[in-house]
Structure formats: C-alpha cells, structure tokens
Design brief:
The protein has about 280 residues and is an alpha/beta fold. The chain is about 40% helix and about 10% strand. The protein is elongated. The two termini are about 30 Å apart.
Length: about 280
C-alpha cells in the first residue's frame, strides 16, 4: 500500500500557505480525532513555525472518548493548544473561543500597550483532505460559507470568510504529503476515506480494518455483526467472509461477494455504526 499522490492543486496550496502565513494571527489546524497524528501534514510544523496555533480534533464524536482526552493532554504536553469538537453538531466550538484568548493573550497585551484597537482575529484554517474543514467553517460562521463534500479535495481555492466582525478566516485547500513513508499512516487515512477509494484495493483495506478492530475493539465488532464468542481466533480474511455471509453478501454459487462486504464494513466504520473507534493513541 505504497502511495504517491500529490495533485497539482495541493502543490499550489503549499505555496499559498507559505505566502499567506504572515497575514494571520493564528492557525487553526484541523485533524481527524480518530487519527490525530496520521491526519497531520508533517510540513505544517515547518510552515507555521512560531505562529500561534490551535489543533482541533474534529469528528471527536466518532472517536474513543478516553483516547480523545489522552490526545488533548499529549498535544498540550508538547506546548500546542488542542480542543475536541464535532463540526456537524457544533459541539465544542465554544471551547475554541477560550483557546484563542489564551494563545493570543500576549498579542492582545502588546496591541493594547501600543494603543491599538482590537481587530477581528485573522485565522488560517488548514488540514489534509476529508478532516471536515468546510463543515467546521460553515458551522462557525452559521451559514454555508464554503463548498462541502464527503470526498477528498473538494476545496480548491483560497478564500477569506468574514464572521460577524469577530473572525476573518482564511480557508485553503487540504494538503497531503507527496509520499506516504509509513504504510500504517496510509492505511489509517484510507480507513476514514481520506484517500479516494478508486485508487485503493478495497478488499485489502477492509481486511486490515477487520484485523485492527478484532485486536483493539472486539466488543464493538461482535455487537455490530452478531459474532459468537471466540471469533477473535478466526483469521481476519475468514472473519470478513463470515460477516459477508451474515449480511447476505452472496453471489451465484453461494460464494461471498467480497467487494460488497468490504464496502459494507468500510461504510459502517466511516459512519460510526461500529462504534466510537480511535485508530491510534499517543505514545508517551
């Protein structure tokens, strides 16, 4: 599962970030709460530098709640402000206001000492494809300010968005590194739909997902697919086949339609029907 995927508009975005970072007061970096490290672009740290930043763990309602808290603590231990939100429901959005006051406190003091009036906070919103940036901005602004979609790469141009004089948001397209050096990172992002399914081996992807769930969230797997005790001893591919039979994914001859059941399992995971699942936990 070695991938090299770097569309032209993403290369353009990297240039936009470097050119526009000086225009904003703070960077809002959205990550997927289910995989906070894997859904970060490794170049972001270099581009952002010492600019104030808040890491927003989006889709927190789909991740393991206990693991979310561990990630918040982990980021803060690295000196990075972090909050967890659900951009669809708006849960946690108010916490961003509090964090903005904290990370920009020194700037506000400097401006006040110079006799400068407080202006709308200029923010740059960044994140790799499919972490929910457009939904986040729409919820924050209370209107459909940007084009949204459930596939990677929907946002493709830079745009400023004004929000009631309180914020000025600089939205940019999602960016993804040109090569996945770590195959585990590629798999995790693919599990969530952050890589287009058209370029993936869906059956292989579902096999890896079943293997992960079997070893880390067996109770969720058993409950969703009505699996009997001892299913953990079944090989992951056979388990995927068993789920296919239980769900009626049968073709002529009584064989399991592996592509159909693979898509079924991936869809169940992506819609959180299997439960609140985190794909990685912080390492101390």
């Amino acid at each position: 599962m070695e991938l090299q995927w770097f569309p032209g508009h993403m290369a353009k975005t990297r240039r936009l970030l470097k050119e526009n970072i000086k225009l904003v007061d703070v960077v809002i970096e959205l990550v997927d709460a289910r995989l906070p490290l894997s859904s970060r672009n490794p170049e972001i740290d270099k581009i952002v530098g010492n600019k104030p930043r808040i890491v927003v763990l989006n889709k927190s309602d789909m991740a393991d709640g206990d693991t979310n808290k561990k990630w918040i603590s982990w980021f803060r231990s690295k000196g990075i402000s972090a909050v967890e939100i659900n951009s669809l429901s708006g849960q946690g959005l108010k916490s961003i206001d509090k964090e903005l006051e904290k990370v920009l406190a020194e700037k506000f003091k400097r401006d006040e000492a110079r006799g400068m009036l407080r202006h709308a906070i200029k923010m740059m919103v960044v994140g790799i494809p499919n972490v929910g940036k457009s939904s986040f901005i729409n919820k924050l602004s209370g209107r459909a300010a940007t084009k949204t979609g459930n596939r990677p790469g929907v946002t493709q141009t830079k745009q400023w968005i004004r929000i009631a004089g309180k914020y000025e948001l600089l939205d940019t397209p999602g960016i993804l590194w040109p090569k996945f050096e770590d195959k585990e990172v590629a798999k995790r992002i693919a599990f969530t739909g952050g890589i287009k399914d058209e370029i993936m081996d869906i059956e292989e992807l579902a096999f890896y997902l079943i293997d992960y769930l079997k070893n880390n969230y067996p109770e969720n797997l058993a409950e969703r697919y009505k699996l009997e005790d001892g299913f953990e001893e079944i090989e992951s591919y056979e388990l995927l086949e068993l789920i296919g039979r239980k769900r009626g994914c049968i073709v002529s001859g009584g064989n399991v339609d592996m592509l159909r059941v693979s898509n079924l399992v991936l869809d169940d995971f992506r819609s959180a029907k299997i439960g609140n699942i985190s794909l990685e936990a912080p390492i101390k």
